[in-house]
Amino acid sequence: MKKKTLYLIHHSHTDIGYTDRQEKISRYHIDFIKSVLYFLEEIEKGHHPEWSGFKYTCENYWQVEQFLAHSTQEEQNKFEYYLKKGLIDISLNYLNMTELVDEDVLNKKLAQGKHYTNSIGFETNSAMTADINGFSWGYAESLFQHGVENLYSCLHTHHGMFPLFKKQIPFWWETQQGNKILVWNGDHYQTGNDFLLVPNSDQSKQYDESGYSVERANEQFKITEERIFRHFELLEEEGYPYSFSPAMISGIVTDNAPPNPRMMEVIHRWNKQHGEQIEIELITLNEFFHILRKEPTKIPTYSGDWTDWWADGVGSTPAPTKIYRDAQRKYRIANKLTTDSNKGNPELLAQAEHQLMMYAEHTWGYHSSVAQPWNTFVNDLDYRKAAYATNANSFISQHLDELLAKLGEESIQMNREPFYKIINPHKRELMDYARIYIKHWETIDDSYYGANKTDFVEVLDCQTGKVIPCQVLDTALGKEIEFLVNLKPQEERLIRLRRKPVEQSLTQKWNHAHIGTELVSDIASYDGYTHRISTYSVETDYLKLEIDYANGIQTFIDKKNNLDLLHPNRLAAPFSGIYEVTPISTDACAERRMMGRNRKGRITERTFSKLVNVRLISNEEVYALLELDYELKGTKMYTVVLRVYKGIPKIDITVRIQKENEWAPENLYIALPFSYGEDYELFVEKSGTTFRPAIDQLPGTNNEFYLLNNGLTFTDGNHSLVVAIKDTPLIALGNLESHLIELNSKETERKNKDLVYSWPMNNFWETNFKVDLSGFYEFNYSLLLTSNTTPNDSVERATELNEGILVIAYNPKK
């Protein structure tokens, strides 16, 4: 047998909130680095020769950042000293993230690690991740742009799976921009612990009731021998091409594990007895990639999205996730408004970025969230997690307020003339609707709006002197006045509200067959009369909806192209609900564990919503407003609000839900059963990349669901239907039934044309998902028809729909 080497990389896996309070986890990792400094000093002084060869890799820069903020200059000097000696290493990944984080925040955080290592003259170009089951395609480009040339992935296949149908192999991951990083498609982040090399852990078999036993230690070493030799035998049987095998190892088998130099005691014993056949060496992350890059074996190249199996955690916290998404939109708008002369408040911006990053970190709760949902610690950590989203929103809102104030935004004032500044913050020309809200105490030309006045105000464009058609709606924010504007990139325009002249009609049109004496308008169109808006159908110059009284929207016609955009195989009407619950036949945790890669069981009960009422709330010049009430198991209210605009081919949709409490595993989906003719493609957007699900992905990855940034588009190459998803980022693709999971391949490309569902709620994970989904929710979407746009442009349009046009109260300088 040719000599083999087992390379071990020692690290402490960061799960922020899984094993303890989030702030306590920070303290642990600070002290972990300090203890490593102590161990290395002891070894250097000759006090512990049995620990010689000990090395430690900081799993991410966040750990180092915490240490630098809570250490003395002397400790920092020691840290740099051991870094440069090669006994400590830093992974340039910031944290183990979900795909919820957007590329702007991610890039800023990745830059911090590279800036620190450059500042101290420490050469590193590698990153590792642990636990998480995938990364956005844009993540690879972000790593590359910040000096990361190597990525070691330690996936956890619990409810997930590694890519390429095989682990412990390298590949080149090509980004959408054509750059490449070298990836080691590795095993679990504590595989090295399975070899029983750590003597003082709960895995150890060296102890009995009376304590340490030489006899038991020898018995344990025999198990170590069996496992290591068998490990390399299996690799050889599988045609593994390398003479080495890498494995990650922790001080003990737990997340947030303390470092442990005592593994060196067993490693030295092993090398003394078996080093000529298989040598064990503790190395750093960067050392491993130096070794790998010297190997002559040809490494294949793949490109595409590495879709995250664990992205669905956000569905267990729909309320704070909605707050987080609002914070992301404000963050992007603030960046678009920032100039050299108007920077807002940089300190608030930095605080917001930190909170955005921490909420998107992959840990979604305490480890017993499902087993003991009543536990004080479970709820304590849940509120702490939600606080990241809330704090991010608060900080970025204040920062945005600073920016808007410098643009002239006025605070509320008595007797203010109703001037407003309309701002297009985007870098493209935009035609869309703007909204102004008038409080009950505000006046228009010295007149109060009044509770019953809806046809009272008009919008005046101060540049052209023209009146812009508007429509008024009563809302909790006050009278909502909405109107269509066309703005050039980053254009600002002044408008004024003024009292509309009251016109009294002297004639009635009831001499014609338009409406009966009970004031119900239910006469179909006839020669000389067109009935375009009703509870049966809605028609504008651009589109037509027909509503079936059993299900909801049954046709959705693009009138320009005479094409029904609903999927021919749809199971549910657009924006109607689907509820799933899996009865507990074992216990709440075991039932979920048995689901594997599915997010439901074979005995899952699935219910489709049933339409019970349709109401036409408003129909005026700007839009028609309809409410569709459904019955749906698991909810006490399920209402779909359609705002169908008349000036552009756009519909705003709000889904209102009152969700009931359920301990059993459940899912709630909102149907998005759209297409664009027979020959269309689906594109989605996340983390700076636009790609085709089930096509532009790494082989062997997840094509069941995706976590998006702003939305998706169905396109035939010339025309597109854009779906902007504002509040809830998850979509599911394809079959809702429990089924054998097809990992992504050429054969699964057909799924690109499968049914799409928005997936706002789930609680299937058996450990750290929040189990209680009950409460009141409001999820917002927009549909827009576009022509002659690329997929990138269409998806960017979804971003603009979500961020909208800004309106601020403004007092013109006189």
TrEMBL record:
Provide the protein name: Glycoside hydrolase family 38 N-terminal domain-containing protein
Q: Which GO terms describe its biological process?
A: mannose metabolic process
**A GO molecular function for this record?**
carbohydrate binding
Q: Which organism does this record belong to?
A: Enterococcus phoeniculicola ATCC BAA-412
Instruction: Kindly list the organism's lineage.
Output: Bacteria, Bacillati, Bacillota, Bacilli, Lactobacillales
Domain spans labelled Glycoside hydrolase family 38 N-terminal: 6-302
Gene3D superfamilies recorded: Glycoside hydrolase 38, N terminal domain
> What InterPro entries does the annotation carry?
Gal_mutarotase_sf_dom, Glyco_hydro/deAcase_b/a-brl, Glyco_hydro_38_N, Glyco_hydro_38_N_sf
Q: Which domain of life is it from?
A: Bacteria
Pfam families in the cross-refs: Glyco_hydro_38N (PF01074)
